[in-house]
Design a protein that fits this description.
The chain is built from 4 helices and 11 strands, in the order βββββαβββαααβββ. It has about 240 residues and is of the alpha+beta class. It has a single domain, classed as Penicillin V Acylase, Chain A (4-Layer Sandwich), CATH 3.60.60. The protein has a 7-stranded antiparallel β-sheet, covered by helices on one side. Strands 1, 9, 10 and 11 form a 4-stranded antiparallel β-sheet that branches. β9 and β10 form a beta hairpin. It is globular and about 50 Å long.
Length: about 240
């Protein structure tokens, strides 16, 4: 998985670590300092979960909503996904990407129903709409590009900052992740507020959102490899400690 995190640049967060020892000391993830939850959570035992916001209106409870940051933690700590017990979520709308050694799926809450979309073999792209939807911004522009190049077949050997630097310099690598990062580098020809840009820096009706970090991950039977880079500038393809 190649995952990019879009968030308000003013909202503080912590890079992947074991931030929730009271729930499971083996779970690591990207912690939101404001709400205490996770955008991404992973463990060797339970694989990986990532939550993405959707924009449909949802009922909540008396005009309030629970944080979506609990969803990745619930998935990897308790193997619990929304809607499995028949109850509707009390959060705002989301896509929850769930990946284990047995496969991957997207659990969607759109304010009306919870539905699950299995992701079969091959390359998929999930943003804030339906998985692989060619009418969704970014997906229609870039999914075929990711599917055309060779996909990684091994866990990432290098951190994303090294991959970013190699892609920007058009240097090849031998860990198998170079083609995906080359597509990512190619996408930066678009302005960061272009609707099809993968790396974002834009003001939406809901506020200012920008791409803040990049994660590469691979899930196996007994081990989940997770590598992370904080970007030096929101929406810019440069790692934080670049020269």
């Amino acid at each position: 998985m190649l995952a990019l995190r879009d968030e308000s640049p003013d909202r503080p967060w912590d890079p992947p670590a074991a931030w929730w020892p009271d729930r499971d000391p083996e779970v690591r993830g990207v912690r939101d300092q404001q709400a205490g939850g996770a955008w991404l959570a992973a463990s060797d035992r339970a694989g990986l979960a990532v939550v993405l916001n959707r924009w449909e209106a949802t009922p909540g409870i008396d005009g309030t909503w629970t944080t979506r940051g609990t969803l990745p933690l619930d998935a990897v700590v308790d193997d619990r996904v929304p809607g499995a017990d028949g109850a509707l979520p009390t959060s705002r709308a989301f896509n929850l990407v769930r990946a284990t050694a047995d496969g991957a799926e997207v659990v969607t809450w759109d304010g009306v129903e919870v539905r699950t979309t299995p992701l079969g073999p091959g390359v998929h792209m999930v943003t804030h709409g339906e998985p692989d939807d060619p009418d969704a911004p970014r997906v229609g522009r870039w999914l075929d590009a990711f599917r055309t190049v060779p996909a990684p077949t091994e866990p990432p050997a290098a951190d994303p900052d090294d991959e970013l630097r190699a892609a920007a310099d058009h240097d090849g690598d031998d860990d198998g992740w170079g083609p995906w990062f080359s597509v990512l580098a190619e996408s930066t020809a678009l302005a960061p507020d272009d609707r099809d840009a993968i790396l974002r820096d834009t003001v939406e009706p809901e506020g200012h959102f920008a791409t803040l970090s990049v994660v590469t991950a691979a899930v196996g039977q007994d081990h989940t490899v997770l590598r992370h880079t904080r970007l030096a500038e929101p929406g810019q393809l440069r790692p934080a400690h670049a020269d």
